[in-house]
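To the wet lab folks,

You asked to see what we're planning to order before we commit. Fair enough. Below is the target structure as C-alpha coordinates, and below that is the sequence we designed to fit it. If anything looks off to you, flag it before the synthesis order goes out.
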Protein backbone atom coordinates (compact mmCIF):
# COMPACT_ATOMS: atom_id res chain seq x y z
CA UNK A 1 0.00 0.00 0.00
CA UNK A 2 1.52 3.34 -0.97
CA UNK A 3 2.30 5.74 1.83
CA UNK A 4 0.72 9.15 2.28
CA UNK A 5 1.56 11.75 -0.36
CA UNK A 6 3.49 14.70 1.03
CA UNK A 7 2.80 17.95 -0.77
CA UNK A 8 6.00 19.71 -1.78
CA UNK A 9 5.96 23.40 -1.01
CA UNK A 10 8.28 26.17 -2.16
CA UNK A 11 9.06 29.04 0.17
CA UNK A 12 10.44 32.06 -1.66
CA UNK A 13 12.50 34.52 0.32
CA UNK A 14 11.02 37.98 0.81
CA UNK A 15 12.62 41.36 0.16
CA UNK A 16 12.95 41.96 3.90
CA UNK A 17 14.47 38.53 4.61
CA UNK A 18 17.12 39.11 1.93
CA UNK A 19 17.85 42.53 3.41
CA UNK A 20 18.26 40.98 6.88
CA UNK A 21 20.58 38.26 5.55
CA UNK A 22 22.82 40.90 4.01
CA UNK A 23 22.87 43.03 7.14
CA UNK A 24 23.59 40.00 9.36
CA UNK A 25 26.94 39.52 7.61
CA UNK A 26 28.07 43.09 8.32
CA UNK A 27 30.57 43.66 11.12
CA UNK A 28 28.26 46.17 12.80
CA UNK A 29 25.62 43.53 13.54
CA UNK A 30 27.58 40.27 13.59
CA UNK A 31 28.04 40.03 17.37
CA UNK A 32 24.66 41.38 18.47
CA UNK A 33 22.06 39.12 20.14
CA UNK A 34 19.38 37.89 17.78
CA UNK A 35 16.64 40.02 19.38
CA UNK A 36 18.70 43.20 18.97
CA UNK A 37 19.63 42.29 15.41
CA UNK A 38 15.95 42.10 14.44
CA UNK A 39 15.27 45.46 16.08
CA UNK A 40 18.13 47.15 14.21
CA UNK A 41 17.21 45.46 10.93
CA UNK A 42 13.68 46.82 11.23
CA UNK A 43 14.95 50.35 11.80
CA UNK A 44 17.42 50.12 8.92
CA UNK A 45 14.71 48.81 6.60
CA UNK A 46 12.50 51.80 7.38
CA UNK A 47 15.38 54.13 6.55
CA UNK A 48 15.58 52.79 2.98
CA UNK A 49 14.00 54.82 0.21
CA UNK A 50 11.11 53.45 -1.81
CA UNK A 51 13.49 52.77 -4.70
CA UNK A 52 15.92 50.87 -2.45
CA UNK A 53 13.14 48.72 -1.01
CA UNK A 54 11.86 48.05 -4.54
CA UNK A 55 15.33 46.85 -5.51
CA UNK A 56 15.14 44.22 -2.77
CA UNK A 57 11.67 43.19 -3.95
CA UNK A 58 13.07 42.66 -7.43
CA UNK A 59 15.92 40.62 -5.98
CA UNK A 60 13.43 38.48 -4.03
CA UNK A 61 11.33 37.87 -7.12
CA UNK A 62 14.40 36.59 -8.96
CA UNK A 63 15.80 34.52 -6.09
CA UNK A 64 15.62 30.75 -5.91
CA UNK A 65 12.83 29.30 -3.76
CA UNK A 66 13.73 27.58 -0.52
CA UNK A 67 13.27 24.11 -2.03
CA UNK A 68 16.17 24.72 -4.42
CA UNK A 69 18.70 21.95 -3.69
CA UNK A 70 21.78 24.17 -3.81
CA UNK A 71 20.20 26.70 -1.47
CA UNK A 72 19.04 24.00 0.96
CA UNK A 73 22.54 22.45 1.07
CA UNK A 74 24.07 25.84 1.79
CA UNK A 75 21.51 26.48 4.52
CA UNK A 76 22.09 23.02 5.99
CA UNK A 77 25.80 23.72 6.32
CA UNK A 78 25.11 27.07 7.99
CA UNK A 79 22.71 25.55 10.52
CA UNK A 80 25.17 22.72 11.20
CA UNK A 81 27.89 25.25 12.01
CA UNK A 82 25.53 26.89 14.50
CA UNK A 83 24.85 23.51 16.05
CA UNK A 84 28.57 22.93 16.52
CA UNK A 85 28.93 26.32 18.20
CA UNK A 86 26.12 25.39 20.58
CA UNK A 87 27.86 22.12 21.42
CA UNK A 88 31.06 24.01 22.10
CA UNK A 89 29.14 26.22 24.53
CA UNK A 90 27.72 23.13 26.24
CA UNK A 91 31.25 21.80 26.62
CA UNK A 92 32.26 25.01 28.37
CA UNK A 93 29.31 24.75 30.76
CA UNK A 94 30.15 21.17 31.71
CA UNK A 95 33.69 20.42 30.44
CA UNK A 96 34.11 17.09 28.71
CA UNK A 97 36.98 15.61 26.76
CA UNK A 98 34.88 14.06 24.07
CA UNK A 99 31.68 14.49 22.13
CA UNK A 100 30.78 13.96 18.51
CA UNK A 101 27.99 14.50 16.01
CA UNK A 102 27.52 12.13 13.09
CA UNK A 103 25.09 13.21 10.39
CA UNK A 104 24.22 11.80 6.98
CA UNK A 105 21.76 14.56 6.11
CA UNK A 106 22.37 17.32 3.60
CA UNK A 107 24.82 15.35 1.47
CA UNK A 108 27.72 13.08 2.33
CA UNK A 109 28.05 11.93 5.96
CA UNK A 110 29.76 14.56 8.11
CA UNK A 111 31.25 14.42 11.60
CA UNK A 112 31.88 17.09 14.18
CA UNK A 113 33.22 17.08 17.71
CA UNK A 114 36.28 17.20 19.91
CA UNK A 115 39.53 15.50 18.99
CA UNK A 116 38.77 12.46 21.16
CA UNK A 117 35.21 12.29 19.86
CA UNK A 118 36.26 12.11 16.23
CA UNK A 119 39.12 9.77 17.13
CA UNK A 120 36.61 7.40 18.72
CA UNK A 121 34.51 7.52 15.58
CA UNK A 122 37.53 6.71 13.41
CA UNK A 123 38.87 3.89 15.56
CA UNK A 124 35.79 2.19 17.02
CA UNK A 125 35.23 -1.05 15.16
CA UNK A 126 32.24 -0.81 12.83
CA UNK A 127 31.23 2.75 13.74
CA UNK A 128 32.00 4.82 10.65
CA UNK A 129 30.22 7.32 8.44
CA UNK A 130 29.92 4.58 5.81
CA UNK A 131 28.20 2.12 8.14
CA UNK A 132 25.96 4.88 9.45
CA UNK A 133 24.83 5.75 5.93
CA UNK A 134 24.21 2.05 5.23
CA UNK A 135 22.13 1.81 8.41
CA UNK A 136 20.01 4.79 7.38
CA UNK A 137 19.41 3.36 3.93
CA UNK A 138 18.43 0.01 5.43
CA UNK A 139 16.05 1.70 7.86
CA UNK A 140 14.47 3.62 4.98
CA UNK A 141 13.93 0.43 2.99
CA UNK A 142 12.39 -1.29 6.03
CA UNK A 143 10.05 1.65 6.54
CA UNK A 144 8.95 1.47 2.91
CA UNK A 145 8.21 -2.25 3.24
CA UNK A 146 6.15 -1.84 6.43
CA UNK A 147 2.98 0.23 6.69
CA UNK A 148 2.88 3.31 8.87
CA UNK A 149 2.02 1.91 12.27
CA UNK A 150 -1.32 3.37 13.37
CA UNK A 151 -4.21 2.19 15.53
CA UNK A 152 -6.28 1.73 12.36
CA UNK A 153 -3.85 -0.86 10.98
CA UNK A 154 -4.28 -3.00 14.10
CA UNK A 155 -8.01 -2.33 14.26
CA UNK A 156 -8.36 -3.66 10.70
CA UNK A 157 -6.44 -6.80 11.72
CA UNK A 158 -8.70 -7.36 14.74
CA UNK A 159 -11.79 -6.81 12.59
CA UNK A 160 -10.53 -9.33 10.04
CA UNK A 161 -9.79 -11.95 12.71
CA UNK A 162 -13.26 -11.49 14.24
CA UNK A 163 -14.94 -11.72 10.83
CA UNK A 164 -13.07 -14.96 10.12
CA UNK A 165 -14.19 -16.41 13.47
CA UNK A 166 -17.81 -15.46 12.79
CA UNK A 167 -17.72 -16.69 9.19
CA UNK A 168 -18.95 -13.33 7.95
CA UNK A 169 -17.29 -10.40 6.20
CA UNK A 170 -17.02 -6.77 7.28
CA UNK A 171 -17.63 -7.18 11.02
CA UNK A 172 -16.16 -4.93 13.69
CA UNK A 173 -14.40 -6.47 16.64
CA UNK A 174 -16.57 -6.15 19.80
CA UNK A 175 -14.04 -4.88 22.35
CA UNK A 176 -16.65 -4.88 25.11
CA UNK A 177 -18.03 -8.27 24.13
CA UNK A 178 -16.82 -11.77 25.00
CA UNK A 179 -14.57 -12.26 21.99
CA UNK A 180 -10.91 -12.71 22.87
CA UNK A 181 -7.70 -12.70 20.85
CA UNK A 182 -5.17 -15.49 21.26
CA UNK A 183 -1.53 -15.07 20.29
CA UNK A 184 -1.09 -11.53 21.60
CA UNK A 185 2.52 -10.48 22.39
CA UNK A 186 3.62 -11.11 26.00
CA UNK A 187 2.56 -8.37 28.38
CA UNK A 188 0.03 -6.81 25.97
CA UNK A 189 -3.64 -7.32 26.80
CA UNK A 190 -6.52 -6.98 24.37
CA UNK A 191 -8.09 -3.52 24.21
CA UNK A 192 -9.04 -0.95 21.61
CA UNK A 193 -5.98 -0.19 19.43
CA UNK A 194 -6.27 3.54 20.17
CA UNK A 195 -5.14 2.71 23.72
CA UNK A 196 -1.83 1.19 22.56
CA UNK A 197 1.48 3.00 22.18
CA UNK A 198 3.57 2.83 19.02
CA UNK A 199 5.76 -0.02 20.29
CA UNK A 200 2.74 -2.05 21.31
CA UNK A 201 1.13 -1.52 17.90
CA UNK A 202 4.32 -2.70 16.20
CA UNK A 203 4.57 -5.75 18.48
CA UNK A 204 0.99 -6.76 17.64
CA UNK A 205 1.59 -6.22 13.94
CA UNK A 206 4.67 -8.46 14.04
CA UNK A 207 2.59 -11.40 15.37
CA UNK A 208 -0.49 -10.70 13.21
CA UNK A 209 -0.28 -14.10 11.47
CA UNK A 210 -0.42 -15.91 14.85
CA UNK A 211 -3.47 -14.00 16.13
CA UNK A 212 -6.71 -15.96 16.40
CA UNK A 213 -10.07 -14.73 17.60
CA UNK A 214 -11.99 -17.05 19.93
CA UNK A 215 -15.64 -16.69 20.90
CA UNK A 216 -17.68 -17.60 23.94
CA UNK A 217 -21.11 -19.17 23.46
CA UNK A 218 -22.87 -15.85 23.97
CA UNK A 219 -20.72 -14.22 21.27
CA UNK A 220 -21.68 -16.63 18.51
CA UNK A 221 -23.79 -14.06 16.67
CA UNK A 222 -22.91 -10.45 15.80
CA UNK A 223 -24.77 -7.65 17.56
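Sequence we intend to order:
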Amino acid sequence: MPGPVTKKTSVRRTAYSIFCMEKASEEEFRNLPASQKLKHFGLKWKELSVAEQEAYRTKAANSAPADDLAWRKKRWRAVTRKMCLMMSELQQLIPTEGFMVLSAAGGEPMTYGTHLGTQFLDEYNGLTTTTFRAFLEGAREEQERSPTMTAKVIQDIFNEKYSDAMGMEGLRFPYKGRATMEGMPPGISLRHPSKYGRRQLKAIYDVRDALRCTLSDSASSPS
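Structural context that might help your review: The radius of gyration is 28 Å. Residues 69-93 form the longest helix (25 residues).

Thanks,
Computational group
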